[in-house]
């Protein structure tokens, strides 16, 4: 099915308000803010559809540390450290998309639209371009004033469902939110080094939780590059890799999960019924995903005088 034929669902998030966030926050101060972000994302998506996964990952990594405050965007300098140097963030990409949107917004509405809101809006727009649900999100976040790599502690893909759930519940998210947000892997990638321990080339046997055909395919991709220094990437959804849909869950049901945690979602009694529900109904998954993303985007948000609006998303403001 071609991407252009995929129905894009719309829901309104008006019942969801967190802190002083609200839908249409920039209506008076920067009326074209969301349009400008959307146009930047559209241009990049037309050149590289993998930006959907990049932006989803950036948004998740940002919100799971100190909250959705764009601290992940700060560059390290000779006198300042940064979350970017933390291990989990060294392969995060897509920063130039945020830079481009910010540059245009600073010309249109100086010191008005936060970098944290740009990340949230760009992620929302990328998901819709890939065929996913388009949802309204409350805006009004402020940018954070700290970027500490020691705080970057994220759930590893080797965790059990229960182990990963502890990270999510600590941030006010539920089991269903976790299973739903991991569905973003439907457009995701992983480097061989992240999952290689699951492969028969390392274990000496095929992992009983992995489809043998998938194991053979992954071994070929990962081993063919040795002894070079490259670390190949593979799709996490082997079926519809660039399309935002529910096929990720069907892949997990067929033991075609690349990451251990993803695959365990279909086996663990905690999450199995949710996986079955989403696998059977794309509409249900899409709506739950929108709601989960709105909750994710509300974690630890700064408003009022708690943060500021950066001039440059890569650097803290220098007092004038």
UniProtKB/TrEMBL annotation:
Please name the Pfam families in this protein's record: peroxidase
Which residues does the UniProt record annotate as the domain Plant heme peroxidase family profile? 20-317
Assigned GO CC terms: extracellular region; plant-type cell wall
Q: Does the keyword Transit peptide apply?
A: no
Q: What is catalysed by this protein?
A: 2 a phenolic donor + H2O2 = 2 a phenolic radical donor + 2 H2O
Annotated positions binding Ca(2+) 1: 62, 65, 67, 69, 71, 83
Q: Where is this site: Transition state stabilizer?
A: 57
Identify the InterPro entries for this entry: Haem_peroxidase, Haem_peroxidase_sf, Peroxidase_pln, Peroxidases_AS, Peroxidases_heam-ligand_BS, Secretory_peroxidase
Its annotated compartments are: Secreted
E.C. number: 1.11.1.7
Query: Can you tell me which residues form the catalytic site?
Result: 61 (proton acceptor)
Keyword line: Calcium, Disulfide bond, Heme, Hydrogen peroxide, Iron, Metal-binding, Oxidoreductase, Peroxidase, Secreted, Signal
Recite the UniProt cofactor note for this protein. Answer: Binds 1 heme b (iron(II)-protoporphyrin IX) group per subunit.
Q: Name one GO molecular function term.
A: metal ion binding
Please list every transmembrane segment annotated in the UniProt record, as residue ranges.
none
- Cite the binding residues for heme b: 185
What role does this protein play? Removal of H(2)O(2), oxidation of toxic reductants, biosynthesis and degradation of lignin, suberization, auxin catabolism, response to environmental stresses such as wounding, pathogen attack and oxidative stress. These functions might be dependent on each isozyme/isoform in each plant tissue.
The name under which this protein is listed is Peroxidase
Its source organism is: Glycine max
- Taxonomic classification, please? Eukaryota, Viridiplantae, Streptophyta, Embryophyta, Tracheophyta
